[in-house]
Amino acid sequence: MTRRVVITGAAGLCPLGQSWPEIRDALQNRRSGVTQAEEWAEVKGLRTRLAAGVPNFRRPKHYARKQVRGMGRVSLMSVCAAEQALTQAGLLNDPLLQSGRCGVSFGSTSGSPPAIETYAEKIAVSQSLEGITSSEYLRLMSHTTAANLAYFFAVRGRVIPTNSACTSGSQGIGFAYDAVRHGLQDIMIAGGAEELHVICTAVFDILYATSTRNDAPHEQPRPFDRARDGLVVGEGAGVLILESLEHAQQRGATILAELVGFATNCDGRHVVNPNPDTMQAVMQQALDDAGLQPDQIDYVSAHGTATEVGDIAESNATAALFGTHPMFSTIKGYMGHTLGACGALEAMTAIYNLSENWLPGNLNLDEIDPRCGALNYLNETRDFHGQTVMSNNFAFGGVNTSLIFSRYG
Asked: With helix as H, strand as E and coil as C, how does the chain read?
């Protein structure tokens, strides 16, 4: 027998702010978090100067240096978001976290880039280990976010690192869902994070996938728009607290939403060019998992990278399954592509959309690319009283995910 899984906490840090009220205000008032990174002009061959960082982020004063010495920015943002989510769930400092019945399922595309840079410079360039501290490895290891979350909150349950590029956050949530519904854990800290660094942007710039309209940062990126010219890399962290319904009810927790379906698959065809067939298949598999029909999805939160191949494949796959019934938008036009964090931040937003009865419209979508699928593209903030939302993400390596959230009750 499987258990119902609910969300009792949801928090995030992103280019729009460091709390949900700040993020909500920016989305509802259609403000962009994209800026110019003029310091990148020193990098030869880099074409883009656009970036989306978390503004004014610093180590909280109540965090002791000993607690954070093994954390890069990516882990520190993860811990800050988790602290907010656990507080909302009424679990911060609760002995339940150390009971063995609470776990972590969390990821990022990589470890902290500055630590990677240090190792590369010292060993590959200087041919020396001098100056490398033992904590540098803790910052650069691929599971740094999951491990540091477990350390900071003294979690003794299972730790599931999800390092699958742009599906790191959504797989983190999905695998946490599996752990709770099958009774392996009662509570899971789930999500994903990313740290902005020129290394991350360079990966996409080399592939000619970044926007180069450097003089108009607030007009980029442009998901699904005919005039799109590429993505903008951002950063942030998103955390959900997943809990079995019975456990949440027993302790009198406030329930934000219910997670009713999850699926993940792989294209198995190409590392960077998406496959509409398997994109559609993962959405259908999530519907099957939830026991829902396509016409029961009221809103689809799109991946929407603002790349030509991605937008066209995703929108046509979505249209093939749903037609024009559900409303369709992405929040990447506001905050760029936060890579490992995007799935968690988009899931967080979808959950609050359900509980607060509104939806964000696409930003910078002036003219839909005629090659994109025929969908109900939402271009303004609007009221929403639907019952279910689907949040989709698609990553390099052909990894696809789909999550379905429902109003609780």
From this structure: CCCCEEEEEEEEEECCECCHHHHHHHHHCCCCCCEECHHHHHCCCCCCCEEECCCCCCCCCCCCHHHHCCCCHHHHHHHHHHHHHHHHHCCCCCHHHHCCCEEEEEECCCCCHHHHHHHHHHHHHCCCCCCCCHHHHHHHCCCHHHHHHHHHCCCCCCEEECCCHHHHHHHHHHHHHHHHHCCCCCEEEEEEEECCCHHHHHHHHHCCCECCCCCCHHHCCCCCECCCCCECEECEEEEEEEEEHHHHHHCCCCCCEEEEEEEEEECCCCCCCCCHHHHHHHHHHHHHHHCCCHHHCCEEECCCCCCHHHHHHHHHHHHHHHCCCCEEECCHHHHCECHHHHHHHHHHHHHHHHHHCEECCCCCCCCECCCCCCCEECCCCEECCCCEEEEEEEECCCEEEEEEEECCC
Q: Are 394 and 310 in contact (CB under 8 A)?
A: yes
pLDDT (tens digit per residue) in 128-183: 888 788 888 999 999 999 999 999 999 999 999 999 999 999 999 999 999 999 99
How many CB atoms lie under 10 A from the CB of residue 385? 9
Which stretch of 92-106, 110-124, 251-265 has the lowest confidence by average pLDDT? 110-124
Catalytic residues: 166, 303, 337
* Residue of 98, 97, 77 lying closest to 87 (CA atoms): 97
| Both structure tokens of 191 | 């999500």
Q: How confident is the model at residue 84 (pLDDT cuts 50, 70, 90)?
A: very high
Considering the chain, tell me which residue range(s) the CATH 3.40.47.10 domain(s) occupy. Answer: 5-250, 262-406
**CATH class label, 262-406:** alpha beta
Q: What residues does 388 pair with on adjacent strands?
A: 406
**Whole-number pLDDT of residue 178:** 98
pLDDT of residue 307: 98
Helix pair angle (276-290, 308-322), 10° resolution: 40
pLDDT, one tens digit per residue, over 340-362 is 999 999 999 999 999 999 999 99
Torsion, Cα of 186, 156, 133, 65 (10° steps): 80
CATH number for region 5-250 = 3.40.47.10
Q: How many residues does the chain have?
A: 409
